Amino acid sequence: MRNLIHQSKMSGKLDEMFAINTNTLTNKFCIKQHKAKGDKHICIKCYSFKSLLEYRQNCVEPFQRNSDLLSSRILTHEEIMAFKPKGKLGIYRFDGHGELINNIHLKNCMMIAEYHPEFVFALWSKRKDLVQNYVFSSGKPDNMVLIYSNPVIDRVMSKPPKYFDKVFNNVSGEHPLENCTGQKCKDCKLCYVSDETIIVEKVK
Fold it and tell me: Cβ neighbours of residue 115 under 8 Å, at least 6 residues apart?
């Protein structure tokens, strides 16, 4: 069986990493957050919206295929096993572009991680209730790292929400807890394989 899931080789901060991305431009949650009022909401500065509308337009079609596939039905065992995670780092990202679409999407992410224990998977999400309800009822694989993406700039959270492993914060200037700014994920790996629970990065 051929692999139906599109894998993306990332660049920039995520250089040498691979991700399963979805289409930010059609995600109802992302659209709503991108239109949020006030300059402290990180989503109004969304890099994904800008890149997919401008210099990454060629990614829209494969990302949309992932959106449709992962959110419409639970993948079969054969389909998940046909997916072979790429990369030599042993770490993998869900939604370098995009956000959780629904509970089906989350279930498929959990199953992909469970069926591929040789990799550490990390999922960033602002959809706290969706993630918390899922983990409460179904748990999560040991190799899945759940990272709450704090939507408010300069409101650094001192601990992750319940059932999340870490919280990712953005600040507009220097901060005593800043530990991410200017690093590449392949060198840092704080979000993937460290005991650190509070991640702080300066907004570009």
Answer: 77, 80, 81
The Cα 102–Cα 7 span in angstroms is 20
pLDDT digits (tens, 9 = 90+) for 144-191: 999 999 999 999 999 999 999 999 999 999 999 999 999 999 999 999
How far apart, in whole angstroms, are the C-alpha atoms of residue 190 and residue 132?
22
Please list, in sequence order, all residues whose beta carbon lies within 8 angstroms of the beta carbon of residue 55, skipping any fewer than 6 positions away.
none
Q: How far is CA 199 from the centre of its chain?
A: 14
Q: For 97-136, what is each residue's pLDDT tens digit? A: 999 999 999 999 999 999 999 999 999 999 999 999 999 9
Structure tokens at 70: 């992962």
Other C-beta atoms lying within 10 Å of the C-beta of residue 9: 12
Question: Which runs of consecutive H residues, i.e. helices, occur in the chain?
Answer: 28-34, 47-53, 60-72, 77-82, 103-115, 128-138, 185-188, 190-193
In the chain, what are the domain boundaries?
Answer: 8-202
Matching residue, tokens 């080789």: 9
Residue 80's Cβ-side half-sphere holds a number of Cα atoms within 13 Å equal to: 17
Closest to 165 measured CA to CA, from 187, 198, 189: 198
Distance CA 153, CA 8 (A): 28
